[in-house]
Amino acid sequence: MALTTDDIKSIAHLARLGLNEEDLAPLAADLSTMLNLVEQLQAVDTTGVEPMAHPASATLSMRDDVVSEHDQRDVLQAPAPSLQDGYFLVPRVIE
Predict the structure, then answer these.
(1) Do the domain assignments include residue 25?
(2) Are the CB atoms for 8 and 28 separated by under 8 Å?
């Protein structure tokens, strides 16, 4: 698919990009090349190919959902200057 400089101007306007006139022709050529590559990829017959989430078909190792640490809230909050109902009390900074 060949893009013209008018196409590039329209795309730039939609994307709110400011482009110089001398940049339009090279940009149109580059984008046209990329679109041609996409067209080539779309032409590949992929029937029978199963979609995959990741090219490395790694499986996730699952572990048992068990408690690995015990509640230490009282010990960790002991040095705090102010506490209320298990929460740290801090000075108000937003009015």
Answers:
(1) yes
(2) yes
